[in-house]
Design a protein that fits this description.
cell membrane, AAA+_ATPase, ATP hydrolysis activity, 21% strand, ATP binding, 284 residues
């Protein structure tokens, strides 16, 4: 059953077309992960699918009454407002103490219930956001860089938690992640976005493709090479490929796969330090 889909979606900000020709759907129980460089439109796409960001053209469809848990990349509320984690979980809909405690416990932050949001560490806040998304038994979890700020054990535990939640509730997951190795292991489908859907496929398909070895086979530099998607690699026959003339790189050049990857750099600083203001939590 399709939970949410977009057809021929485009989003413009002023004169700038940030997303174009996007066709994407998420079915029940699927884990779909969007990867792509900074500014490639990942958050905008999630927001458009949630109905927070109006589309310039195209269609967005959601199953009637779809229950969504959303972890935004940035939090809209002013963190300096006095508000405990517990109270935050009751926005916008009141939840019982038992339900709140269970969600916080599950996310490893049971002890911070009565702490002010502003006093939480980045990782603790991220866990509280996820706890809030789990409340109300969502059919779809929409997670925008949900592991930002988590330490390494926390990150591993988080992906396990996602898998557990899906197994228990059948919730689908649509997430943006920069944790490429985990993404490949934990997703049913991976979508590479760069203003448009550059390529997509199951991790298996991607992994079996020669291009996967070029992209991921050389340790960290290989994985990070996916971010150089503007783009000096070619997509192989195993990858569904959605663009042609609009593409700014040559997909036919066979020796382009690993070219120059070692020289390219992607630093964590590129998507760190974005603060906590902006997009608000959303419960549909
Ligand atoms: N409200 C807005 N008004 C104008 N431009 C915007 C707005 N929101 C996003 N953009 C622009 O749209 C582009 C895509 O932004 P978006 O936040 O979707 O990227 P992203 O892929 O999520 O990046 P990141 O990895 O840094 O989170 C960027 O160039 C951004 O500056
Ligand atoms: Mg983003």
């Amino acid at each position: 059953m399709t939970l949410v889909s977009v057809q021929s979606l485009a989003v413009r900000f002023g004169g700038a077309e940030v997303l174009r020709d996007i066709d994407l759907s998420v079915s029940a129980s699927e884990i779909v992960t969007i990867v792509g460089p900074n500014g490639s439109g990942k958050s905008t796409l999630l927001r458009a699918m949630l109905g927070i960001q109006p589309a310039s053209s195209g269609r967005v469809m959601r199953k009637a009454g779809l229950r969504i848990g959303y972890v935004p990349q940035r939090l809209a509320i002013d963190r300096s407002l006095p508000m405990t984690a517990r109270r935050f979980l009751s926005l916008p809909r009141r939840v019982s103490d038992a339900e709140a405690a269970a969600a916080l416990d599950r996310c490893g932050v049971g002890a911070v219930a009565e702490r002010q949001l502003v006093d939480l560490s980045g990782g603790q806040l991220q866990r509280v956001l996820f706890a809030r998304a789990l409340i109300g038994r969502p059919e779809l979890l929409v997670l925008d860089e949900p592991t930002q700020g988590l330490d390494q054990p926390g990150e591993a535990a988080f992906y396990q938690l996602i898998a557990d939640v899906r197994a228990e509730t059948g919730a689908a997951v649509l997430m943006v992640s920069h944790d490429l190795h985990v993404v490949m292991a934990a997703s049913d489908r991976v979508i590479c976005l760069n203003g448009h859907v550059c390529c997509e496929g199951t991790p298996q398909v991607v992994r079996d493709a020669p291009e996967y070895r070029a992209l991921f086979g050389y340790g960290t530099q290989g994985a990070l090479a996916l971010y150089r998607h503007d783009h000096d690699h070619n997509h192989g026959p195993g990858l569904a490929h959605h663009h042609d003339a609009a593409c700014d790189h040559d997909h036919s050049a066979p020796d382009h796969a690993a070219k120059d990857h070692a020289a390219k750099e992607y630093t964590a600083a590129g998507h760190a330090g974005e603060g906590h203001s902006g997009t608000g939590p959303h419960h549909a």
